[in-house]
Amino acid sequence: MINRRFSGYLFASPWIITFGFFWVYPLFYSLYLAFTDYRLMHHTYKWVGLQNFERLLADQSFLLALKNTFIFVFGTIPITTVISLILALLIEKNFKGRAIFRSGYFIPSITSMVVIALIFTNLYSRGGYLFLLSEMIGFSPPANGFLLSNKTALYSVMAMDIWMSVGYYMLLFLAGLKSIPKELYEAAEVAGAGFFRKLFSITLPLLKPVALYIIVINTIKSFQVFVEIFVMTKGKYGSTTAVYFIYESGLNRFDFGYASAAAYLLFVIIAAFSIAQFSLFRRRTVS
Amino acid sequence: MRILRYIVLGLILLIMIFPLLWMFRVSFLPSNLGMNFDNLFSTKWTFDTYFDILTAGNMLRYFANSIAVGIIVTGGNILFCFLAGYAFARYRFIGRNFWFYSVIFVLMIPAHIIIIPLYLLIFKLGMYDSYWALILPFLVNPIGIFLVRQYINTLPVSMEEAARIDGAGEFRIVFKIVMPLCKPALAVLAIQVFLTNWNSFLFPFILTSSESVRTLPVGLALYQGHQAIDWPHLMAGSALAVVPVLAAFLFFQRHIVSGITTGAVKQ
Q1: B222 and chain A: CB distance < 8 Å anywhere?
Q2: How far is the CA of A21 from the CAs of A215, B95, B193, in angstroms?
Q3: pLDDT tens for each residue of A109-164
Q4: How far is CA B18 from the centre of its chain?
Q5: Would you call A46 helix, strand, or coil by DSSP?
Q6: Is residue A135 part of a domain?
Q7: Complex ipTM, two decimals?
Q8: What's the domain count of chain A?
Q9: Is residue A225 part of a domain?
């Protein structure tokens, strides 16, 4: 490595400028906004202290958004993780046509979320295929379709989200499976271990790092669920989420201080979960 | 046993690709059929929907905007992520670690936190509702820098040192020697950036308002609002958004997969 102060800064400057302008400044700016009453109409920042936060914690629509976000995170992540693991185990071994299945399972996760959400809006609506299917198996769907009912709107979006993302995490699990040394399985077979013994004594323990990585990134992503809510329900029928609330209070009602306070509250929640997961991860690997 | 496996895998495959097949099917339906769901095996096929969206309305404009913004953003990322990644891998300069940590920091930070301030900043800069808003904040990204740095770390320095002894300047070394060697990493980066940008909704949505600068996902998401949902035309527009992705997947599958998995296994 050589000493190149000038070239170093020159080459890194696009990043440094982007970082400063579009990350550091916004982060501090919205932290400041969170303690002010700043609206588009009056161009003055009025310092209000913790008022925005107090208002939030008494705001039923924010509390519902927060509750829904937690339902979304804790409802989807375990199911997504387990299904993607099962898919990875199913197509781990080499067999004819494996590539087709792997590609097919993966394709939804690189498709535009807007498009997927539109297609599922069609499938979930009255007379749509998922509507007809649920009638067929004897589960009577809400009269106006799954997205126009308080009972099912949020869960329908969650189900779609699981469907969409399992292929992506399957790929990560496949990469993790590949990195397990084959000798371990051979040795286990010599010792007379069966399928389940190998699964629980070798495969699953060694997949733990990948699984935790998947859970961490999925947690950060799921806490920010927005696009599918915007396209499918517009936050109606009790399906609003935290980022949807931020969007609505900030960019529809132009209550910037309030929206920033909500964004920071969510930020703190996500950070707390990430730190908890990381420390859990570290303790598990050390012992 | 083997047949059972194929049946199970095939059923899952059907579940995973049916929605996209259905999108294509609907896009070829005459739109006067209205809300009609018995059309999977219908014999009615028409190209009118595609003709309509490509000749009238704004769908073609959205498509062109997405392509143009995608190409510029991808080009910017190739150049800027490469340069920054090179600087972090090979140069020693004051504050280098600090700036590299800034990359990791942004990599982990949830983007929702900058929705409001970025909107206000873009507004104050006079860039709201312009192509600048879709391009400027996204010309370099932390994942790309990280990817390039990791890749350059695996390359031997001997060629660069030899060139330096021969008196080659830094620009020459970087662009003529190192950049060609980084082609595999830059290909992964380019495809990842283009696809992410192509599918991106949140920021293009909040940073623009007029139809002339709208990208395809934003145009599709707001299309619903115009009239009672016209599914055939909406699905034809959706197909416009999906076909390039499928084509990219067909040709660059290896790159896409390695872009996703390198981060995961290295952590």
Answers
A1: no
A2: 31, 18, 20
A3: 999 999 999 999 999 988 888 988 898 898 888 888 999 999 999 999 999 999 99
A4: 24
A5: strand
A6: yes
A7: 0.92
A8: 1
A9: yes
199-218 in B: which are within 8 Å (CB) of A?
A: 199, 201-202, 205-206, 216-218
Chain A residue nearest residue B92, CA to CA = A3
Q: B100-155: per-residue pLDDT in tens?
A: 999 999 988 999 999 999 999 999 999 999 999 999 999 999 999 999 999 999 99
Instruction: Sort B67 into a burial class: Cβ within 10 Å, 0-12 / 13-18 / 19+.
Output: middle
Residue A280 belongs to a domain: yes
Asked if B201 and A112 come within 8 Å (Cβ–Cβ), the reply is: yes
A286–B contact, CB cutoff 8 A: no
In this structure, is residue A232 part of a structural domain? yes
* Alpha-carbon gap, residue A91 to A245, rounded angstroms: 40
- Residue B140 belongs to some domain of the structure: yes
CATH number of the domain encompassing residue B190: 1.10.3720.10
Q: Which residue has the tokens 């990644």?
A: B85
Provide the residue range defining the domain that includes B201.
48-154+183-266
Nearest beta carbon to residue B114 from set A23, A112, A121:
A23
Q: Which residue of A has its CA nearest to B25?
A: A119
The answer to whether residue B38 sits within a structural domain is no
Check B23 against A119: CB less than 8 A apart.
yes
A66-104: per-residue pLDDT in tens?
Answer: 999 999 999 999 999 999 999 999 998 888 888 899 999
If you measure CA to CA, which chain B residue comes closest to A123? B19
Overall number of domains in chain B: 1
Q: Enumerate the residues of chain A whose CB falls inside 8 A of the CB of residue B72.
A: none
- Stretch 104-163 of chain B: residues touching chain A, C-beta under 8 Å: 106, 108-121, 137, 139-140, 145
Is there a domain that residue B72 lies in? yes
Residue B267 pLDDT more than 50?
A: no
How far is it, in rounded angstroms, from Cα A135 to Cα A239? 23
Q: Which domain holds residue A188?
A: 36-286
